[in-house]
Design goal:
Layout lengths: L9 H8 L9 H31 L6 H24 L11 H33 L10 H24 L19 H37 L6 H4 L1 H31 L7 H26 L1 H11 L6 H6 L19 H7 L6 H8 L1
Helix pairs in contact: 2-3, 2-9, 2-10, 3-4, 3-9, 4-5, 4-6, 6-8, 8-9, 9-10
């Protein structure tokens, strides 16, 4: 029977795997790192809170897609909490941690990654349901969206707790990894491959949807009147989503590849030299997302500016404005669902005059 090491501190596992915890990371270097980390985390907290508040405040965002977008911002907010906890429990402090505290540190990071990943996957399904059926909005009710959001966090918490629940190397110390000294190498392989496969699936789905919408829009453009911007509204929406997905994949893929190499016990890959840079890259994803929201969506940026300036919304100015936000699709009174062809032809997709006003009522 294998001996278990639940009562050991992390220095036992770090020393056994020869993992460098940067004992010299003290003094001015530590202060600089903490200052930059604190700045980024504060930005994550403030900006993602503004995104969530904008979705709640602005009735134009009261659609399933934007509820899921707000939940993605909540996942980034949670990531900020995970990074704050990591900042004060890393470096030389790592060796002094108990096993349970180290599990908590890593579990928070795993939970934030899973929450963002599953949320993007649900958004992909929601977009596929609506766009591929030529509907502007999906038929998801608020109850169903709430159920999906709760399910996303349940899955995220479970995946973050899997190593704590038993898939670790505390009772099989020969199977311990290098980057995560109490995680089994088999778990790292499972974790990284699963996430990379989901990345690939989502990229394929979004590319397929984008190509479909662009082709359909080009076909309809010769049969409709109005500005090009109105006809390109569905394409702009997909560009926003694909930008979010692209940023997520770029920021997280290097770290997952490093974990995969560690799980495969690649001793000559130099993973210890790059792990901190790839963790910083993952942190930047939570910083980039609110910037993408505001840059790609004029209405989102306007709502956030109004909240920052503590001024009330000028409804009359919104009604007079001829520019409709790039990613907001107007409502229709047709209870059977809005269709892209009908919306473009009849002007219900961010249409003109009284139709646009009726859609916002």
């Amino acid at each position: 029977m294998n001996e278990c090491y639940y009562d050991k501190r992390m220095d036992f596992f770090y020393n056994r795997t020869n993992t460098d915890t940067v004992d010299e990371w003290t003094g001015p270097k530590l202060i600089v790192v903490l200052c930059f980390g604190t700045f980024f985390c504060l930005f994550i907290f403030i900006s993602n809170s503004l995104v969530i508040a904008a979705v709640v405040k602005n009735k134009r965002f009261h659609f399933p897609f934007y509820y899921l977008l707000a939940n993605l911002a909540a996942a980034d907010f949670f990531a900020g909490i995970a990074y704050v906890f990591l900042m004060f429990n890393t470096g030389p402090v790592s060796k002094t941690l108990t096993v349970n505290r180290w599990f908590l540190r890593q579990g928070l990071l795993d939970t934030s990654l899973t929450a963002s990943l599953v949320n993007l996957l649900v958004i992909a399904v929601e977009r596929h349901m609506s766009i591929m059926r030529m509907k502007i909005h999906s038929n998801l009710t608020k109850k169903r969206v709430t159920f999906l959001i709760v399910s996303i966090w349940a899955i995220a918490i479970f995946m973050g707790a899997v190593p704590t629940l038993g898939w670790n190397c505390l009772c099989d110390i020969t199977a311990c990894s290098s980057l995560a000294p109490i995680y089994s190498r088999s778990y790292l392989v499972f974790w990284s491959v699963l996430n990379l496969v989901v990345f690939f699936i989502m990229v394929v789905v979004y590319i397929r949807i984008y190509m479909y919408v662009q082709r359909k829009t080009n076909v309809l453009s010769s049969h409709t009147s109005g500005s090009i911007s109105r006809r390109k509204t569905p394409v702009k929406l997909m560009k926003t989503v694909m930008t979010l997905l692209g940023a997520f994949v770029v920021c997280w893929t290097p770290g997952l590849v490093v974990l995969l190499l560690d799980g495969l016990n690649c001793t000559y890959c130099g993973i210890q030299d790059v792990k901190r840079w790839f963790l910083l890259l993952a942190l930047l994803n939570s910083v980039m997302n609110p910037i993408i929201y505001s840059y790609k969506d004029d209405e989102m940026w306007s709502t956030m500016k109004r909240m920052i300036c503590c001024s009330s919304e000028d409804k009359s100015q919104d009604r007079r404005s001829s520019r409709i936000p790039s990613t907001v699709l107007c409502r229709s009174t047709d209870t059977s669902g809005n269709y892209i062809e009908d919306g473009i032809i009849q002007g219900t997709i961010c249409g003109k005059g009284d139709l646009g006003d009726k859609g916002n009522s």
